[in-house]
Design a protein that fits this description.
Shape: globular
Distance between the termini: 45 Å
Strand content: 5-15%
Strand order of the largest sheet: 4-3-5-2-1-6
Order of helices and strands: HEEHHEHHHHHHEHHHHHEHE
Number of domains: 1
Number of strands: 6
């Protein structure tokens, strides 16, 4: 493998889901912070996040910082320990006998070479990356600080001496993309290249909606964006990236919820819907209340 990804770029990859796919709405209530309670257990909190390091997002409201402060544990989608994330970078790389250009063709490769140079990715590294990894990078803004909201919360929890947990492993998240066919990866890459010039405006709109907690507005925006994606790919994303992961994360957060005073931070996309985390918790007898 040629070179390694720096920490900021790697974090961008593992928070792999572009902003346009991480902000669907709750069914009836707007709100990003929910109290979760059940008889015999101390209440916990679930926060819907947006994977961004924009200052408008990372300037946390008092209700969020208060909920984190009074919690005794913190769980994110991933274990955000950097050493573990660095170990996963090999999953983003093609086998030794393949190059990106041989997989995607010269025209696409030259487009990727131009766009990825803006992220500081050298050609020696780009040439070994899988198509989905390139698509993921092109679907995200260039990091400003590298401290995305999820990482910021994780670091705050560490400073406060809380026990920290990851609801999934990086390998589990990346396996969804590795399970895509080559043609599906090319569709994903073509869409990312096509949308790249428009990405800043889309992200800015989503951030404004998130800060206003207008989850219904975010859902409408996301629905429009998802309609632009090949139906076989969008169905795969909904099934593998959302529904299956929701069930897995709800199962794995149970020990923390049972202990009480847990703070769970997951992409807001995972909260709504019949197979969303909120409904799955309700089916297990939890009462939910919007806090913010």
């Amino acid at each position: 493998m040629h070179g390694i990804l720096n920490k900021k770029v790697l974090l961008g990859y593992v928070l792999i889901f572009s902003l346009s796919m991480n902000v669907w709405a709750a069914d009836s209530d707007n709100g990003i912070l929910w109290q979760v309670s059940k008889s015999g257990q101390l209440p916990s909190f679930v926060l819907g996040t947006i994977h961004s390091d924009d200052p408008a997002v990372t300037a946390l409201p008092a209700k969020v910082t208060s909920a984190l402060q009074q919690s005794t544990s913190f769980s994110a989608e991933l274990d955000l320990d950097m050493s573990k994330m660095l170990q996963a970078q090999m999953q983003m790389m093609l086998p030794e006998n393949k190059t990106l250009q041989s997989v995607i063709g010269a025209q696409r490769y030259n487009q990727c070479l131009s766009l990825m140079s803006r992220y500081g990715v050298p050609e020696a590294l780009l040439s070994k990356m899988k198509p989905w990894a390139v698509a993921a990078q092109l679907s995200m803004p260039k990091p400003q600080t590298g401290v995305f909201l999820d990482l910021q919360l994780f670091q705050m929890a560490q400073v406060q001496g809380k026990k920290t947990y990851g609801l999934e492993t990086i390998a589990e998240q990346m396996s969804v993309f590795d399970g895509m066919t080559e043609s599906q990866q090319l569709i994903m890459l073509d869409q990312a290249i096509k949308d790249h010039a428009h990405m800043p405006a889309k992200i800015n709109k989503l951030i404004k909606l998130y800060v206003k907690r207008d989850l219904n507005g975010m859902k409408k925006f996301s629905d429009i964006e998802m309609e632009k994606i090949d139906s076989s790919l969008s169905n795969l994303m909904e099934d593998k990236l959302i529904n299956e992961r929701n069930h897995r994360m709800v199962k794995r957060m149970q020990p923390q919820l049972a202990a009480g005073k847990a703070f769970i931070a997951v992409g807001a996309l995972h909260l709504p819907g019949e197979q969303g985390i909120l409904k799955l918790l309700q089916k297990q007898g939890y009462q939910l209340k919007v806090i913010y």
